[in-house]
Amino acid sequence: MSAAAPSSEPASRRTELLAIAAGLFSQKGFRNTTVRDIADAAGILSGSLYHHFDSKESMVDEVLRTFQDELFGQYDDILLGDADPRTKLERAVEVSFAAIDRHPHEVAIFQNEASYLGAFERFGYLAERNAQSRAVWLTLLHDGVREGALRADLDVELTYRFIRDTVWVAVGWYRPGGKLTHDVIARQYLAILLDGIATSPAAPPAPTKGR
Amino acid sequence: MSAAAPSSEPASRRTELLAIAAGLFSQKGFRNTTVRDIADAAGILSGSLYHHFDSKESMVDEVLRTFQDELFGQYDDILLGDADPRTKLERAVEVSFAAIDRHPHEVAIFQNEASYLGAFERFGYLAERNAQSRAVWLTLLHDGVREGALRADLDVELTYRFIRDTVWVAVGWYRPGGKLTHDVIARQYLAILLDGIATSPAAPPAPTKGR
DNA sequence: GTCTATAGGGGGATAGAC
DNA sequence: GTCTATCCCCCTATAGAC
Questions:
Q1: How far is B62 from chain A (nearest CA, A)?
Q2: What whole-number percentage of chain B has pLDDT above 70?
Q3: Regions of chain B with pLDDT less than 70
Q4: What is the architecture of the domain spanning A55-195?
Q5: Which residues of chain A are within 8 Å of residue B151 when distances are taken between CB atoms?
Q6: pTM
Q7: For position B200, what pLDDT does the model report?
């Protein structure tokens, strides 16, 4: 097998091919993307791909590992920092939206294919990363409650799911380079998450000012 | 082709087969589910399926249409009702979580396959339903702002996306019959959405009570 | 590093017997 | 309503030439 280890050289052909594959995987799904699709997009024939990679699986594997190593490194930095709980939570949200901005394909692949790929031994690390992600958010939320920054009656597990879902699913509609930048979205999202959208808790029918 | 119209009789074989197919489509994805998978699960051979349906596409088509007709009927009832804006918004959220409870497979299929299926002419109605859903939520949000129930500075478009995403993506982890019932989840979710998770807007580091 | 050629398997769908 | 048998296409991956 000629597939060599990624050797940090001049953004190699290997890297180019991975980027092309990632785009297709995110757009059409892993199974629904054929090696011929990838080869076509790269301007070569399908057989030639196997000079660079062992298999289609190897491609998605390398894409996901590279992305996750970077993302979880950022989470770790936040957790190890000495900011207050609310700030840490805000930073984690910001970092996540920034990841969607910089690596939309990778995020989409992880979102859409994790459950399918996770069934293979080779991709067992996906479940580990998932647990690690949960641990990060639960830590942030528990710290926030303990220090009084978040409501004491919070269902932390449920809140974690809502945050996780809302943040990552944004990859479905966020467009890098569009009108809304990732940091604006993060701020707006945090405003809703932290303070809600209502004018007051269980507001009365409102003193009929409009209509 | 023998595929007859659904004739409302005793939960027919046809209906059974659709339920089996829906379960597989939601679990493994549409493309990743073979007609042989469906036939196996039904205890028959793949060729026999074509006595009931024209094609695999026809199956997913019927599943989605049936579900969406029901769901949007409920949305319409809410919109046409005379409740106040906040109550309408709450009901729409409740109805959506109830739909996840009663039709988890259908919701999952719509969530995961809409973008793929939508590319075919036959499934053009998926895009229409999507636009209809957006119209429902935007109406609810705009009414809420106009009547003073929701913050005047709300980014309605962005809020719509967050609501939509968080509600439907719950199908990924919600388990009918589990500890958390759909109405409890809806209430908890509305608590976060309407009032936020923070103790106070931009709370100070908190009078260090714990640690 | 890419091409030609092809092996080997699985997919959707059909025709006709029972 | 189901089964047997099968067609034809597309998929991943390989072997060896250039």
A1: 23
A2: 90
A3: 1-10, 201-211
A4: Orthogonal Bundle (1.10)
A5: 197-199
A6: 0.91
A7: 76
Q: How far apart are CA A151 and CA A115, in angstroms?
A: 33
How many Å lie between the alpha carbon of B185 and the closest alpha carbon of chain A?
8
- Does B148 contact chain A (CB < 8 Å)? yes
Q: What share of chain B is helix, strand, coil (3-state, %, to 5)?
A: 65, 0, 30
Yes or no: say if A152 and B125 are a contact pair by the CB < 8 Å rule.
no
- Spatial separation of the C-alpha atoms in residues A8 and A11, rounded to whole Å: 7
Model confidence pLDDT, tens digit, residues B65-124: 999 999 999 999 999 999 999 999 999 999 999 999 999 999 999 999 999 999 999 999
Q: From the CA of A49, how many Å to the C1' of D17?
A: 17
- Residue B155 vs residues B115, B135, B138: alpha-carbon distances, Å: 25, 15, 11
Nearest residue on chain B to A148, alpha-carbon basis: B206
Please give the class, per CATH, of domain B56-195: mainly alpha
3-state helix, strand, coil in chain A (%, to 5): 65, 0, 30
Q: What pLDDT is recorded for position B10?
A: 59
Decide if A15 contacts A52 (C-beta within 8 A): no
Determine the residue of chain A that is closest to B150 in CA distance: A198
Residues of chain A with pLDDT under 70: 1-10, 201-211
